[in-house]
Amino acid sequence: MSIRVVVGEDDFLVRQGVEQALSIHDDIVVVASCDGYNSLLAEVGELRPDVVVTDIRMPPTFSDEGIRLAATLAVDYPKVGVVVLSQYDEPEYVLALLDSGVHGRSYLLKERISDVEELARAVRAVAEGGSVIDPQVVQRLVQSRTRRRTRLEWLTPREREVLEAMAQGMSNAAIGAYLGMGLRSVEKHISAIFQKLDLTDEERVHRRVQAVLTYLSETS
In degrees, to the nearest 5, what angle opens at C-alpha 65 toward C-alphas 2 and 122? Predict the structure, then answer.
């Protein structure tokens, strides 16, 4: 079965480039393309695609439309994956994207469009509920969080299993079912992970996202 994709990008040439990069793959079909937030949201509501590939900044405000779209879809259409394309490699942008959850979310730099296989891999990954973060963005996070890299070594094998499940976008309940643990045990392990990664002062959502990104930076 083909992965149905809606593309959102205000720059005509970039939008055409994304469409062409995806069209060469037999398992991916672009069903619509839009040049603004409002039209993109309308197309998603009408077509219910598997994945949205969207620019981070579009009309009407050219600020954070791609991030806001992902947050909206997480509530209204949680099964729709989102690949955000951006020219910004600052970790703050990807943290904002993942605030609404890591499940089915990808953040790629626009320069990756030229790598048709990498873009297609991201689309396939989010269609299956996975997460893909641009290696350059992860590297920036690593550089600013050097101390946290080594702290993965402080995790117990069980804590690493829980963190790996978090990185796959699982909820606490899903982690418990996957690892054969009670919900209270999962919560205790996650609390220990936050403590060992020095995330105790982060906002609650950011702690989970930061923990996942730390894991990805060590295992990618």
Answer: 35
- If you count them, how many residues does the chain have? 220
Q: Domains in the chain, ordered, with CATH? A: 3-134 (3.40.50.2300), 145-219 (1.10.10.10)
Bridge partners (DSSP) of residue 106 are 83, 132
pLDDT digits (tens, 9 = 90+) for 25-49: 999 999 999 999 999 999 999 999 9
**DSSP-assigned states of every residue in 130-196:** -EEE-HHHHHHHHHHTHHHHHHGGGS-HHHHHHHHHHHTT--HHHHHHHHT--HHHHHHHHHHHHHH
- Predicted TM-score (pTM) of this structure: 0.69
> Of 197, 201, 192, 191, which Cα lies nearest the Cα of 216?
197
